[in-house]
Amino acid sequence: MTEAAMTSLDRRRPEPLWHQAERAIRARIEAGEWPAGSQIPAEDRLCELLGVSRITVRHALRNLESLGLLRREHGRGTFVRSATVVAGARGLTSFSDEMAALGLTVGSRMLEQQIVPASARVAAALEIEEGEPVALVRRLRLGNGSPIGVQTAHLRLDRVPGLLDEDLSDGSLYGQIERRYGIKPSEATEIYRVGSVGPEDAELLEIAVGSPAFIVERLAIDPRGPFEFTLSIMRGDRYEIRSTLRI
User: Transcription among the record's keywords (predicted)?
Assistant: First the structure.
């Protein structure tokens, strides 16, 4: 496939441009022109090749990442993912619902609640421009009074105006934004990595620096598109993933 072939998106087709862009990128991967482990062109270059906006390219890349074909590394770029096993189909629930289902008393402590400019990673996830204001909600999550994780949520400010005027320390954030704005996630993409806990998070989680943890990125989407991107640091000794596998 030549670069010219990637520009053959047809605006007259009923098929959305982001879906056409997704198919064009996927075709290169499946043809072996962008092999596993290789870096694909940057967003600006893909916009030129496909003749579409950055928002359209980001939508296509996000879908391919959720399918496990791509991985995005902050500060480095987007790479074709090697074959991997992604475990665990789970219900679309909040942390509060998840802990309650395990019989734990859910609690939170507000660490930070403010409007901040979107970083490059957050902007790419939420399909906005870098530097646009987002609502940041950072909380220490508790189970039966003991720390389980530190969660930092970023929400599109244009979807939740005035959210930070409320007390968000307790309860489900999803529950609050559904009641106030009618926003209910229809799907979410979660990426789990294993990492070690840094000094600040270790103190909050009451564990030693360098202790193992799950580093979890979650992107929540409703019919209008992505509205929340959350980074969680979950204690490895208090949080686990279980999968039921059937033939």
Answer: yes
Would you say residue 86 lies in a domain?
Answer: no
Q: What share of the chain is helix, strand, coil (3-state, %, to 5)?
A: 30, 30, 40
d(CA 183, CA 163): 12
- The DSSP-derived string for 55-110 is HHHHHHHHHHHHTTSEEEETTTEEEEPPP-----------HHHHHHHTTPPEEEEE
Residues 11 and 115 in one domain: no
For the chain, what is the domain count? 2
C-beta of residue 177 within 8 angstroms of C-beta of residue 163: yes
Same domain, 118 and 223: yes
Return averaged pLDDT per consecutive 10 residues of the chain, 247 residues in all: 55 82 88 86 91 90 80 84 47 55 71 95 91 96 86 96 86 87 90 91 94 92 92 84 63
In a domain, 85, yes or no: no
Per the confidence metrics, is the pTM higher than 0.85? no
